[in-house]
Amino acid sequence: MPTVGGCDFPADPNLPADRAVLFWTSTLQPDAFELRPSPSSVDDGFAIPLRLPDFPILVGVADEDGAWHGHWWSFGHEHRFRLDAAPPEHPVTYAVILPLDALLELRAEAVLRFWRAVNGRPSGPWHHPLPKQTRDRHVLILRALDAHRTGASYRTIAEVLFGFHGRTKADWEQSELKNRTRRLVADGLRYMRGDYRRLLHYPLRLPRPR
Length: 210
Hints:
By secondary structure, this protein is of the alpha+beta class. It folds into two domains: 1-125, no CATH class; 132-201, no CATH class. It contains five helices and five strands; from the N terminus they run βββββααααα. α2 (132-149) crosses α5 (176-192) and α3 (154-162) packs across α5 (176-192). The longest helix has 18 residues, at 132-149. The radius of gyration is 22 Å and the shape is elongated.
């Protein structure tokens, strides 16, 4: 969908974040995993044949390479997966591709939640949501970054976000809010330049690429 700036997004940028359907690749989002047709027969006693087009509340989209990305809601939980092509109308047995990497723990959790759901069971809790305190701080980061990029001074940002009411320059220089505000802006700039992807891996702390 073309937007201001000439970029195409796979989701409507005008939708609120909690209503938008986003499709992530497994390299960025460990909750997204890859399904491939399995050589197992649908008559195998242990096989779980899936007719994906019949899944309720399933949204799918093909990317420019023909791969198909599915986003399925079940028992109030989201499940994201990728196939090399759109799923057929007949039942298929699938295998899950899990890279043996630093994100395996999160990937395996996502697959287990999906497996429970296709078996008609509650998916179980999602073990890596951001804590409320962390979410609240990231709201401040976004607000501070937006203000900084529109030309607001650190002092003005502190006045709006934290109610700073110092009268003199010395009041500002001695306030702990000065460094706190600077850290918010610095973190926002870092996330804007790509570090936001690390939030997708919470609670794992992975080393930054060199």
